[in-house]
Structures are given as C-alpha cells and as structure tokens.
Amino acid sequence: MKKLILIIFLLIATVGCSSSQEQTPSAEDLVGNYTLNYFYVPACNSCEDFIAYGIPVIEEVFQDHITINKYDLDASGTKVIYDDIINRLDGFDQDNYGFGPFISFGDYFAKLGYAYGDESELVNDMLKAVNGMELGDELIAGRYYFK
Question: Cα–Cα distances in Å, from 67 out to 11, 59, 101, 142?
C-alpha cells in the first residue's frame, strides 16, 4: 500500500513539474519566412553591438527562414518605412521616436534598445512569438506589440 501511494505521489509530482514549465520552441521546428527590420543610428555603440553580436546569432538560429533589412535612421527614404511600423504599434512612446537600435520582427513585436548579451533572450522571444507563445519578461523594457 505504501508503495502504491509513493508511486501515485511521484507520478503526480512528475506530471505537475513537467506541465508547469514553458519550453522555448526549437529553431528546428521553424517553417515559413520571417522579416526583421533593423533601424540604426550611425556612430551608435548599441547599434554597432547589435550588428556585431545580435544579427549573427539571429542568422545562425533562423538560417534561411529570416530576411534582415537594415535601415539607417538618418537616410532619406527610411522615414516612410519607420513611420509605417511606428504607427502600427500599440502605445509607442513618441519621446523615443528616431532612437536606435530599433527592431521590428514581422507583425509580432518591436523592440527599442539593445545591450550586449540580450541576443539569446531576443532569439528566444522571436521563437516564442512565431509559435504563439507569451514572450519572456527579460526584455520587456522597450518592447511594443502591433495593434
């Protein structure tokens, strides 16, 4: 009898633990193509860091499933593309208009700002977004969702 109770207890504990943990989807399960629009300001250290560290990690994970468009925020012609994205965001703080680095990932989310080391959490959020999962809280500052 004690063994039966112990087995039931272990079974419940195991099921409870595994169902309460949210897994980050694997890049191996990617289907379709995604677009990342990256807006930068020349001579911006964070922008340069994103090019050096963030983009290579994203390209490594998403491989042939991603197109990355890079836009200089000071270049003519960029404003139309940038404004289109900004105007579709829910609650964008206009005080942050024109700052970089700024990325938009499809129609999933946009993110203002980057710090070296953010790339793994950013990629996790991107994978969660394409799989319809809730994004993590680590990079919530500066994150905007599309309307």
Answer: 45, 9, 17, 22
**CA 146/CA 101 separation, integer angstroms:** 18
- Rounded to two decimals, the pTM is 0.81
Question: CA 45, 48, 54: angle at the middle one, nearest 5?
Answer: 120
Give, to the nearest 10 degrees, the angle between helix 55-62 and helix 119-130.
Answer: 40
Structure confidence by residue, pLDDT tens digits, 53-66: 999 999 999 999 99
Report the relative pairing of strands 66-72 and 109-112 from DSSP bridges.
unpaired
* Terminal alpha carbon distance of the chain: 57
Fold of 27-145: Glutaredoxin (3.40.30)
* pLDDT on residue 24: 65
